[in-house]
Write a structure and sequence with these properties.
Helix content: 55-70%
Number of strands: 0
Largest sheet: none
Shape: elongated
CATH topology: 434 Repressor (Amino-terminal Domain)
Number of helices: 5
Mean pLDDT: 89
Radius of gyration: 17 Å
Number of domains: 1
CATH class: Mainly Alpha
Low-confidence stretches: none
Oligomer: single chain
Amino acid sequence: MKNEHLGSSFDDFLEEEGLRAEAEAAAIKRVIAFQIEKEMKQANLSKTAMAEKMHTSRTALDRLLDPANVSVTLQTLERAALALGKSLKVELA
């Protein structure tokens, strides 16, 4: 009895099931949300203050910081980076 999946990777499984892009987007969003929250804490910025610096609403900031919400625009990420005195770097690897 031979297991056809023996030796395959989790990435291969996700690819076969058509879930890889979705899983990677969710993972990336979790990292981004974590990094923004970490930088906010270091800068001693409340959510209200951060939203003001980003020229957006607190609700929009909450969506940005929600790791499960993967629908975020580059413009929003750029505004967050600028509000934190950082630059946004996006690359294909």
